[in-house]
Amino acid sequence: MKMILIIDDDSAIRSSLSLMLKRAGYEPKTATGPREAMAVIRAEALQLILMDMNFSLSTDGEEGLTLLKQVKLFRPDVPVMLMTAWGSINLAVKGMRAGAFDFVTKPWNNAGLMQRIETALELTAARQETEEKADDDIWDRSRMIGKSKTLLNVLATVRRIAKTDASVLITGESGTGKELIAEIIHRNSRRTGKPFVKVNLGGISQTLFESEMFGHRKGAFTDAVADRKGRFEMADKGTIFLDEIGELDIGCQVKLLRVLQEQTFEVLGDSRPRKVDVRVICATNADLVQMIREHAFREDLYYRINLITVHLPALRERKSDIPLLIDYFVKRQCRENG
Questions:
Q1: What is this structure's pTM?
Q2: Hey, what CATH class is 3-130 in?
């Protein structure tokens, strides 16, 4: 039975999380603060840690950050999920920089929290695998042509993460195959056979963002002559691929972050929140880290979409693949043109 440590000075939170984890088949351990937590961490073989950031009247999170650093020094292999209030997102971002795996905001949705816990455990297990049994698994990498070491390293990463629900950020220049990699991840995931919805965020204006992504009801605005499903609803139970994420303006970034954080959205013209279950894959050719420095991209959104980064090398960095690509396209043209 996998053991999960809950660190929180609130007894109600410790009790509710313990009950939830027991029902899901995990063995919960609890600690009220840093000293007690480190004693458990030293004594037990933990698979995951759920940790609050504040353990006193102070809300600056320094106790939590100090504890996180101690945990990562002592048990760097154990994923740590931070628990924080929505208004303390900046504190969670500091924690992500210090090595936390993920963060959840209070109050959370239990189903959403369990999904994140399972993703963290699966992804950690995948990272620890040292050998891939290629003959025993079905692995679909069709249309990703090449045998160069750089490309094979990318595909090895993709293969390890495909069956998890971890959010993925695909980076690379235009034309390197980011959409193709997103499709490969989806086809090799547990969500294969479910919707794969592509969204080019660079082509959606700020005024149309909510209608396009969340849908609208008839009469919600002047041109809303009929009900329309949004992209998130279309992608429910499947994967949504958000291309050109760096093109999204700050206002729309906030709206996207709330959906990813709370796993609910509201249709324009209907205030009832709707649950959504999607895996999120994003892609960009922009330098998001530089955009964060320039205050053009939210750092909390960056950490939410970037549990795993897959960087695609340009063709000039894998020249040995050029003959294979030429052969592939020549044969395809011959088939298509007789």
A1: 0.72
A2: alpha beta
